[in-house]
Task: structure prediction
Amino acid sequence: MMLPDSPIARPLPYWLGPWCTDIVNGTVDARRGLPLPDGVGATPHVDVLGRAFTDRAERERIRLTRATARPARRRVACLARIEVLTAQLDELRAGLAELGAEPSADDLAARRIGEVDAADALVHARRRREHRADRARMRCAVSDVERALGEERLALATAEQQLCARHELAAARVHRLHAHTLRRISTYERRLLRKHPAAELLTRRWSHERPVVPAWTLPSV
Result:
């Protein structure tokens, strides 16, 4: 995933306060003999950091849902209108093709009220004018629907672009927070292993548990 070209893409600052908290917790847990030599599970401090990350990631998801509510509704509305306009356009084009470029022989011979005694040439000329007028109206209708369809497709593309951009921004925040959390856990664990009485045994057996980024932040395949 490409991170946006903005300050959100830079790593979170690791201030002295959180660093001291991680160092102190690593020292205290090492003196208490945590984790146990079997090396199963995470320590309380890692659990706290993991839950904090999970909570903030969930807040980002809720924030994303609120931010994308309006463009999501626009996208649904655009899709519905595009479906209707596409059906109208297909119907108009079929009607235009059925009308043909020239009137048929039967259409040319058709006479209206008051044309019973009119000359054939005059009747034929009237039918051709009527046919041209009908084709002009249908072409105008086709052009109107095509223009409306183009506008709806543009609105759909804009809504989808907004949805994608906001999703990428929220995902970037979560990945940024995840990297920061892993950095804090790494600092804590280095301190813990340095002070732990069974550091060598723990190094071989400790199954390091790490928080994972939620699935919604990952790019769809």
Q: What stands out?
A: The helical segments are 16-31, 44-67, 69-99, 105-109, 120-195, 199-205.
